[in-house]
Amino acid sequence: MSTTLCFDFGNTRLKCAYFSGKELQKVIVLDNDDTKTIQECIDTFHPERSILSSVIHHNPSVEKILQETTRFHKLDHNSKVPITTPVGKPDTIGADRLALSVAAVDLFPGKIILSLDWDQPLLIILSISTKNLWVAEFHRAWICVLNP
Question: Which pTM does this prediction carry?
Answer without folding.
Answer: 0.76
